[in-house]
Design brief:
alpha/beta, 7-stranded mixed sheet, 4-stranded mixed sheet, 15 helices, binds pyridoxal-5'-phosphate
Length: 464
C-alpha cells in the first residue's frame, strides 16, 4: 500500500519548520527587514522571494559545494545557483583567471586572445563550427531565435509545453487545458505569444508533425530533455524524429544546453550524438561570471553572410555592449579548460547516481508514490509514481505545499536544494558524504510526514 499524504500534518510540520528557520536566522531576518526600504519585496531579483523560508537566507560566502550564511550556518549546496555555479563556487582556476583579467581590462569591445581557445573548445565539444558570445542564456536564446527568423524568413518558433529558455518573450507560453496561451503569470507580454509561437507537448510526434507542416516555423527551440518542469527525458527515437521532421520542413533545430550540460562536457548533444543547427548555452560556463554562447554551422553562417547589413550591425537586435568582454572570455577559458572537464564529470555523474539511489531507498522504505529521475550530474524526485512523458503531465503532479515543506526541512538541516522543485546538482567539489547527508535528511523529513501514518497503519488505526 502506498503512503498517503495528510495535509493537516503537512501544514503543522511546515509551520514548525518556519518557526525553526526564524529562530535560527536572526541576521538574515534583520537584513530582509532593512531591504524592504529600497529593494522591491526586500530582494535584488524577484525570484528570490520564491524560497520556502519566510525570508531568504543571506549569504556571507560560498566556496566549492557549500556556502555560509550571515548567521554563521554552513550549507551543502545542491542548488548551485540553479546551475550558474555548477562548476562549484569560486573555482580557483576561474578566480585566478578572472583576477588576472580584472587587472588587464574588463571590457573594451575588442577581441582578446581567449576567444580563440574558447570557440575552438566549444566546437570540439559540441561539433558546431562558429560561436558567438552573450552574457546570459536568455540572450543567447534571444539571439538564436532572431538569427533563425532572419535566415529562414519565417515568423514563428516552436517550444515545448513547460519548457523554460529564459525571459525570451516568444517562449513564455503554455498549453492551458490544451489551448496555447500566455504562461500563467507572464508579465507584460509585448504581444500575445500565440502570434509568435507554437507550443506542443514534448514527446508528441503527431503534434510536432502537424505544427511544422505549414513551414512557417523558423526554429524549434528545445532543451534535449526538459529540465525546468523537472527532468522529462525524450522517449526512444524522439530526437531522431525531431531532427528528421525539422530537416524535412526546412525548420532549424536549436538545442538549449544551458541545464543539460549536466550530461557531460558536450551536453546531451555529445552524449546522444545530436546534430542541431544551433546550440545555446549559458549559466555555468564562466564559473559564475556572466557568460553564454550560441553556435551554428557553416550553412547558417553562409546565410548570415548572404544577407547581413554590417552597417547596421550595432543596432540589429543581436549582440550587446558587454557581450564578449575580456573578463567573460577569461573566465570561460579557465572554467572549460580546468574545471568543467571530463575528469569533473567522471566525479559528479556517479555522485548524482548515488544521490538518486539514496532517494530511491527512502521512496521504497516509505512506499512513496514518487519517482526519482537523473540526467548526468543532475537528479530530482517528483511526486508521481512513474516518470512524466511531457511537461503537462509533470506540471499536473506538482505539489507546492509538499515541495515547500521538503525544501525548508532540508534548509533547516543544512541542505540547499534548487528552488521551484526538488532538484540537486553535483559540483566537482561535492562529496559522497554530502550526498549521503541528503539521503539522511530526506528520510527524516519524510518519516516525520509519512512515518507516523505508516505506524498508525501498522497499529490498525485510522488511515486515509
Ligand atoms: C534551459 C534554460 N535556458 C535558458 C535559461 C536562461 O538563463 P538565464 O536566466 O541565465 O538567462 C534557463 C534558466 O533557467 C534555462 O533553464
Amino acid at each position: 500500500m502506498t503512503a498517503t499524504l495528510d495535509r493537516a500534518l503537512l501544514g503543522t510540520l511546515f509551520a514548525a519548520e518556519q518557526a525553526r528557520f526564524v529562530a535560527e536566522h536572526p541576521r538574515s531576518g534583520a537584513l530582509s527587514e532593512l531591504a524592504q526600504a529600497h529593494l522591491l519585496d526586500g530582494v535584488p531579483m524577484n525570484w528570490m522571494t520564491r524560497w520556502a523560508s519566510p525570508y531568504p537566507v543571506w549569504v556571507r560566502e560560498a566556496h566549492g559545494a557549500s556556502f555560509t550564511c550571515v548567521d554563521g550556518l554552513t550549507y551543502i549546496d545542491f542548488c548551485l545557483g540553479d546551475t550558474g555555479a555548477m562548476a562549484g563556487h569560486s573555482p580557483p582556476a576561474t578566480v585566478a583567471a578572472a583576477q588576472r583579467q580584472l587587472e588587464l581590462g574588463i571590457t573594451t569591445m575588442l577581441p582578446t586572445e581567449d576567444c580563440l581557445w574558447v570557440a575552438e573548445e566549444l566546437s570540439r565539444r559540441f561539433g558546431l563550427r562558429y560561436w558567438q558570445v552573450a552574457l546570459t542564456a536568455t540572450d543567447a536564446n534571444r539571439f538564436a531565435v532572431r538569427l533563425a527568423r532572419h535566415v529562414t524568413r519565417r515568423p514563428k518558433i516552436l517550444v515545448f509545453n513547460y519548457s523554460y529558455h529564459g525571459s525570451v518573450d516568444e517562449t513564455i507560453i503554455t498549453l492551458n487545458d490544451g489551448v496555447p496561451g500566455p504562461k500563467p503569470g507572464n508579465a507584460g507580454p509585448p504581444v500575445d505569444p500565440t502570434i509568435t509561437t507554437k507550443v506542443i507537448e514534448w514527446n508528441d510526434l503527431p503534434a510536432l508533425e502537424e505544427a511544422l507542416a505549414p513551414r512557417d516555423v523558423a526554429c524549434v527551440l528545445a532543451e534535449p530533455a526538459l529540465t525546468n518542469i523537472g527532468i522529462v527525458l525524450p522517449e526512444p527515437g524522439y530526437h531522431d524524429a525531431l531532427r528528421r521532421l525539422t530537416r524535412e520542413t526546412g525548420t532549424l533545430l536549436v538545442i538549449d544546453e544551458t541545464h543539460t550540460i549536466c550530461a557531460g562536457p558536450g551536453g546531451c548533444t555529445q552524449v546522444w550524438d545530436l546534430a542541431p543547427d544551433m546550440i545555446t548555452l549559458g549559466k555555468p560556463i564562466g564559473g559564475g561570471v556572466p557568460s553564454a554562447v550560441y553556435g551554428f554551422g557553416p550553412a547558417i553562417a553562409d546565410l548570415i553572410h548572404a544577407d547581413w547589413d554590417y552597417h547596421a550591425t550595432d543596432e540589429c537586435g543581436i549582440g550587446g555592449t558587454l557581450a564578449g568582454n575580456a573578463l567573460t572570455l577569461a573566465a570561460m577559458r579557465a572554467t572549460l579548460g580546468e574545471v568543467l572537464t571530463e575528469a569533473a564529470f567522471a566525479h559528479t555523474i556517479p555522485l548524482a547516481a548515488r544521490w538518486a539511489d539514496g532517494v530511491q531507498s527512502v521512496i521504497d522504505e516509505e512506499r512513496l508514490p514518487w519517482v526519482v529521475k537523473r540526467l548526468g550530474c543532475r537528479a530530482e524526485y517528483w511526486p508521481r509514481p512513474v516518470p512524466p512523458k511531457n511537461g503537462g503531465e509533470a506540471a499536473a503532479a506538482e505539489d507546492e505545499q509538499l515541495d515547500r515543506y521538503l525544501h525548508l526541512s532540508m534548509l533547516n538541516r543544512g541542505i540547499l536544494m534548487t528552488p521551484f522543485h526538488n532538484m540537486a546538482l553535483m559540483a566537482p567539489q561535492t562529496t559522497a558524504a554530502d550526498v549521503d547527508r541528503h539521503t539522511e535528511v530526506l528520510r527524516e523529513a519524510v518519516v516525520a510526514l509519512f512515518g507516523r501514518r505508516a505506524a498508525k497503519r501498522a497499529g490498525g488505526t485510522a488511515d486515509c
